[in-house]
Design brief:
- It is a single chain.
- This protein has helices at 6-9, 50-58, 78-95, 98-101, and strands at residues 4-5, 19-22, 25-28, 75-76, 118-120, 129-130, 134-147, 153-169, 172-177, 183-187, 197-201, 206-211, 216-220, 227-232, 237-242, 247-252, 257-261, 264-268, 274-279, 290-291, 295-300, 306-311, 316-322, 334-339, 343-348, 353-358, 363-369, 378-383, 388-392, 397-400.
- By secondary structure, it is mainly beta.
- The chain folds into 2 domains: 4-95, no CATH class; 118-400, Methylamine Dehydrogenase, Chain H, CATH 2.130.10.10.
- Strands 6-7-8-9-10-11 form a 6-stranded antiparallel β-sheet, with no helix packed on it. A 4-stranded antiparallel β-sheet has the order 5-30-29-28, with no helix packed on it.
- Strand 26 and strand 27 form a beta hairpin.
- The chain is globular and about 75 Å long.
- The relative contact order is 0.10.
């Protein structure tokens, strides 16, 4: 790789223009870099890069080569280019996030507000989901709506037998009813709470659900007749495809749908057939994953269990968190993973805790007790963009973390 000019490494090639045109008017950058308050004395008559250098300096992407020098014509090594790129990525994630807009800057010292963060829902919650404003919790014969801003219970939609997972899409809420003859339920969240409508018949015991922008997919976890159901919401036609025994979670990565089964994960074609199989573990079942925009994080639900990170673009396993690897981070029968834009949270079914990881560099943040005891069974997790929300299948509460 060739060495790169420091200015161009910041992605500033377009800034080489001394003027840009907007709505017919010419807007010129300031002629003197000193007017930006920059400490660098070696920028000379530089004009085209002033604002870009100032932005990179004030956001911490670069600090120059000394307290007073920037060395604008110096070359970069690959290591320095990587540092610029990752600092830029982190700044974009942090400053552009909903958490940042709400002033929630902590990422390494999260806490669980025992006695304050729990909300009683009167039923044992399963795989909850957020639409950005509200939290939807499947729980037994109903789906409960919680307002994320204050935890107020807004209503319940009824008519399920065993509501398991929720999808919010196309201005509707979809629910998998996990019974021997699986059912997809639907309701309009803009209407008053009432009974849900059955819109499609699925495979046996539908457990998880995802959406690819056109069709709804469910993973149906019957031990003997596991399948994937692909639902067209225009006609409610259903394609049931047998995949493998004991399916777990299903996730869409922007291009492909993936489904977990035993110790494997399968990448599926559009017709539900398998295009790739990746073996994840001999120690337990792959459960309910999440996608962070690049990688899929897959809990392996044995005891103590592990967490596998798989790159979606090529199916390569890039990291495994486990006791054997010395980086278990408190994993104890990990169950479901969720992504909040910066962090990955994994629920620990047997550990009364959650484990947190940093998505950008796959580093460990920490393991945190929920304070409710092991019998609470830490189950589902989702993010509303600001907070994580956890459901407990052993007690009738959910919690904001």
């Amino acid at each position: 790789m060739k060495r790169i000019d420091r200015r161009l490494a910041l992605g500033l090639g377009a800034a080489a223009w001394a003027a840009v045109f907007l709505c017919g008017a010419t807007v010129r950058v300031l002629a003197d870099c000193a007017s930006y308050g920059l400490p660098f004395t070696d920028l000379g008559a530089e004009t085209a890069f002033c604002s870009a250098i100032a932005e990179a300096y004030y956001t911490g992407i670069t600090s120059g080569t000394s307290a007073t020098t920037f060395e604008p014509a110096a070359n970069l090594t690959r290591e320095q280019a990587a540092a610029f790129a990752t600092r830029t990525l982190d700044a974009g994630l942090t400053r552009g996030s909903r958490r940042g807009a709400l002033g929630q800057w902590w990422t390494t010292t999260p806490h669980y507000d025992t006695g304050l963060g729990t909300i009683s829902i009167g039923a044992k919650g399963q795989f909850l989901q957020s639409d950005g404003s509200d939290i939807w919790i499947p729980a037994g014969d109903k789906v409960i709506r919680i307002r994320a801003s204050d935890g107020a219970v807004l209503g319940s939609w009824t008519g399920a037998t065993s509501a398991k997972a929720v999808l919010v899409a196309m201005n509707r809420v979809f629910v998998t009813d996990s019974q021997p003859s699986g059912v997809l339920l639907m309701f309009d969240p803009s209407t008053a709470p009432g009974p849900m409508e059955a819109v499609a018949t699925l495979g046996k015991f539908p457990t998880s659900i995802t959406f690819d922008g056109n069709r709804i997919w469910t993973a149906n976890s019957d031990v003997e007749q596991s399948s994937v159901s692909i639902i067209d919401p225009r006609t409610w036609s259903v394609l049931n495809v047998g995949v493998s025994p004991t399916l777990g979670g299903v996730v869409f990565d922007g291009r492909n749908v993936w489904v977990t089964s035993l110790g494997d994960i399968f990448k599926l074609n559009t017709d539900g057939s398998i295009s790739m199989t990746v073996h994840l573990s001999d120690e337990g079942d792959a459960l309910f994953p999440t996608f962070d925009g690049t990688n899929i994080w897959i809990p392996i639900g044995s005891y103590p269990g592990s967490l596998v990170v798989l790159r979606a673009s090529d199916g390569r396993i890039i990291k495994t968190f486990s006791e054997a690897s010395g980086n278990a981070n408190g994993l104890r029968e990990p169950h479901q993973a969720a992504f909040d834009g910066q962090r990955i949270m994994v629920t620990n079914w047997a550990g009364d805790s959650v484990s947190l990881f940093r998505a950008s560099d796959l580093s460990i943040i920490g393991n945190y007790s929920t304070g409710l005891g092991e019998s609470s069974l830490v189950n589902g997790v989702c993010s509303d963009g600001a907070s994580f929300w956890i459901s407990f299948s052993g007690v009738s509460v959910i919690a904001r973390f």
